[in-house]
Design a protein that fits this description.
about 550 residues, alpha/beta, Rossmann fold, Domain 2, N(10)-formyltetrahydrofolate synthetase, Formyltetrahydrofolate synthetase, domain 3, 3 domains, 12-stranded mixed β-sheet, 3-stranded antiparallel β-sheet, 24 strands, globular
């Protein structure tokens, strides 16, 4: 790897503006944003509905960035940080693969620069202060059934989903039920990723809604007098992290909200910084376009005033065959008919992108052994039926060289087409209207039902004046519906909203659908059982 000081120099960053974490990673001071005005084009990489076969979205982002660099372009990536939960669970690491990775991969996948730990600490500090004030009797009027703030840990631990606390002390509350979420689902994570300065970070932290009193009035973090301490814990975590790809392309890896239970995008600060330091910024949004990319536009871009020059939609023959009804164990066999049956899922995501006035480029991420017959089916469908640009990327095996075709398509597309994206809804519309527009337009639902808890939540939202916030729907990533078992492009289905959470600090509402969980569990054979440290090296990190 190139020394991180040389990577910073490549971007024009002065030595005094970086805080090195060893020789291969560093944090960048926010003063850089005052020295360099934004100049770059923003490229979003999204994907069709993910499958257990893996689509390689991050690998494609890295390969595209390396391809652009090989074309002589000034480029910087803007990616999310991995969570320890998936790293030790089923999904594994999130640093790309093969010859298209961000490095040092093991550090990024594990502790990195400590951002996740800082977020966990800040979140749980607020929990501890809240419960201490309840214990001391300072919050005698708090409604024990309306204490919303849970705790977090950066691990898949289903046993912590529901826990019982004994408040004790002078409060008179006694025992109450609460639980843990995974750190990637913490509102603090969302706050960090949307904040644009330390002052903005503190302002957002102060607005976090932790509970209601017995009169239905909000209790926010500011009233608990700990937003300053939380900001102190997060002062370094707010600074974007600089690393590099396999071919020495600069990459800012910062923030890590999941897209199925949060907004699924890296930080606004890292994106702004990449746009200021390069001519081309490549970023990603989590899971399929219906989840991460929808939130990328309606929450991140709408709130921060960002826009994209091109959108890349990643597809694979393997994913298409799974959406065509083939099981994972049988994906190795050539099956052009299954590919054809899976194409409606791809078609739906192309339609979704166009609803934002952003015509996409479809990228087929090539896996070893993909038959030419299957690839040609996808190429023909994109060119003749969807009428969108198409490119094959072989970036896992060939790195930037394998991303040249895609890079040329992106440059040509971005320089020809220039129009602002169109949000899917207006923030000032009614909450149910916003939910309907996402569920109907992005998922294809023909009905949205609301459980009794959700209807009560809507009343509270209206009473407290949070109805003009955007929505961040929590939904399974495995299907366009809220049922993970429904593959392909389902039709004539209903989305059920169970409850609606208020993330006042982050600045959005969270409608919870289906059986989505904010604390995942480990699989039967977690990847943690394969991880080891031998002879000075970490092995088994996938």
């Amino acid at each position: 790897m190139t020394l991180i000081t040389e990577i910073a120099e490549k971007l024009g960053i002065a030595p005094e503006d970086i805080i090195p974490y060893g020789a291969d990673k560093a944090k960048i001071r926010l003063e850089v944003l005052q020295k360099f005005p934004p100049r770059g084009k923003l490229i979003l990489v999204s994907a069709m509905t993910p499958t257990p076969a893996g689509e390689g979205k991050t690998t494609t982002v890295v390969g595209l960035g390396q391809g652009l660099a090989r074309l002589g372009k000034s480029v910087c990536l803007a990616l999310r940080e991995p969570s320890l939960g998936p790293c030790f669970g089923m999904k594994g690491g999130a640093t790309g693969g093969g010859l298209s990775r961000v490095l040092p991969a093991e550090d990024i996948n594990l502790h990195f620069t400590g951002d996740f730990h800082a977020i966990t600490s800040a979140h749980n500090l607020l929990s501890a202060v809240l419960d201490n004030k309840i214990f001391r009797g300072d919050l005698r009027n708090v409604d024990p059934d309306k204490i919303f703030w849970r705790r977090v840990v950066d691990m898949n631990d289903r046993s912590l989903r529901n826990v019982t606390l004994a408040a004790g002390g002078k409060s008179g509350i006694g025992v109450r039920e609460t639980g843990f979420d995974i750190t990637a689902a913490s509102e603090i994570m969302a706050v960090l990723c949307l904040a644009e300065s330390h002052a903005d970070l503190k302002f957002r932290l102060e607005k976090i809604l932790v509970a209601l009193d017995r009169d239905g009035q909000p209790i926010v973090a500011k009233s608990l007098n700990c937003a300053g301490a939380m900001t102190a814990l997060l002062k370094d975590a707010l600074l974007p992290n600089l690393v590099q790809t396999s071919e020495g392309v600069p990459a800012l890896v910062h923030g890590g909200p999941f897209a199925n239970i949060a907004h699924g995008c890296n930080s606004v600060l890292a994106t702004r910084m990449a746009l200021s330091l390069s001519d081309w910024t490549v970023t990603e949004a989590g899971f399929g376009f219906d989840l991460g990319a929808e939130k990328f536009y309606n929450i991140k871009c709408r709130g921060a005033g960002l826009d994209t020059a091109a959108v890349v939609l990643v597809a694979t023959c393997r994913a298409l065959k799974m959406h065509g009804g083939i099981l994972k164990d049988h994906l190795g066999a050539t099956n052009p008919e299954a590919v054809k049956k899976g194409l409606p899922n791809l078609h739906k995501h192309v339609e979704n992108i166009k609803k934002f006035c952003e015509p996409p480029i479809v990228c087929l991420n090539r896996f070893e052994g993909d038959p030419e017959e299957e690839i040609e089916i996808v190429r023909s469908y994109c060119q003749n039926e969807l009428r969108v640009p198409f490119a094959v990327a072989d970036v896992f095996s060939r790195g930037g060289e394998g991303g040249l075709e895609l890079a040329r398509q992106v440059v040509d597309h971005a320089e020809k087409i220039s129009q602002p994206f169109r949000p899917l809804y207006d923030w000032n519309e009614g909450v149910k209207t916003k939910i309907w527009k996402v569920a109907h337009n992005m998922y294809g639902a023909d009905r949205v039902d609301y459980a009794k808890d959700a209807e009560r939540d809507l009343e509270v939202i209206e009473k407290l004046g949070y109805q003009n916030l955007p929505i961040c729907i929590a939904k399974t990533q495995s299907s366009l519906t809220d049922d993970p078992m429904k593959i392909g492009r389902p039709e004539n289905f209903t989305v059920t909203v169970r409850e609606i959470l208020i993330a006042a600090g982050a600045g959005f509402l969270i409608p919870m659908t289906g059986k989505i969980l904010r604390m995942p569990g480990l699989p039967k054979n977690p990847l943690a059982e394969k991880l080891d440290y031998q002879d000075g090296k970490i092995i088994g990190m996938e």
